[in-house]
Automatic annotation (TrEMBL):
Keywords, in A-Z order: ATP-binding, Cell membrane, Membrane, Nucleotide-binding, Translocase, Transport
Protein name, as recorded: ATP-binding cassette domain-containing protein
GO molecular function: ATP binding; ATP hydrolysis activity
Location in or out of the cell: Cell membrane
Family classification: Belongs to the ABC transporter superfamily. Drug exporter-1 (DrugE1) (TC 3.A.1.105) family.
Taxon lineage: Bacteria, Bacillati, Bacillota, Clostridia, Thermoanaerobacterales
Amino acid sequence: MKIKGGIFEKEKIIRDNSQHAIEICSVFKCFGNVKAVNGLTFNVEYGEIFGLLGTNGAGKTTTIRMLTTLTKPTEGKLYVAGYSVDKNPVDVKRHIGVVPQQNNLERELTGKENLVLHALLHKMPKNVREQRIEELLSYVGLDDWADKRVQNYSGGMARRLLIARALVHNPPILFLDEPTIGLDPQTRRKIWDLIQLMNRAGVTVMLTTHYIEEAERLCHRVGIVDHGELVALGSPEELKTSLGNYCVEFLNKEGTERHFFPTRQEAYSYSEAYDCDTAIRRTNLEDVFVEVTGREEG
Ligand SMILES: Nc1ncnc2c1ncn2[C@@H]1O[C@H](COP(=O)(O)OP(=O)(O)OP(=O)(O)O)[C@@H](O)[C@H]1O
């Protein structure tokens, strides 16, 4: 995958009085009796890769759908690029790219035609859009597939095309809902590289994931959501440190028991008191996830 110079050069964003790329202020979303989102408040800063991590049904997709103008909150306010999602949805749409969880590409069209269609929806002039599309197809490594129909693409290729499509109109903020769901490990790594390259080129990224490894490897900051509530927020390092950087782990009759300590020495002293086999290791984000949600997997 190649980065061509200048493809992420951005127009200057005129923001109201916001310093944040994304602001979520006391947001609730109910579907009947189900509180899909239950009082979320946090910001995403310009330049970040921010990950919303949670189990299935935690409220991640609903949050992305509200931020990207697809559904309205029951209560609360959302701002993207300084614009109110409620009052200025058209401005919000101009400033965002969205990679949905489901592949909604036009399968009968070629990769290039899909991008042209998106550019036309954003009223991009022909000379600008042609160059941009060529550059993006090369950027996501699909130049050789540009004129082939999407129905012949693999899952990983379709995901790369979805990312290219989201970037056609040069948005400063990109939302990705479960960007690597269902992909094999090699393709997943390629998508991670692509997200990191985009971010280095200046794009602010907010993604959802239920893969803890994805959040730990990719995200500058992570918000862990459970039953629609934010239960932890910080960089992976901050979250691990807050729990204790060293873990003593051993098996008892009920299952695996874990205890956390700030230093290896304290962990070692604790483990010495036990007769059974104990392991001392560095704390990881999965430990944080289990502690704050009470669940074993993302
Ligand atoms: N349109 C809808 N109508 C009714 N309930 C909904 C609707 N959309 C979401 N929900 C419910 O809201 C809760 C949160 O769903 P959401 O899709 O936001 O979770 P998620 O964290 O994105 O999970 P997943 O990874 O499975 O998509 C779930 O209980 C879900 O069943």
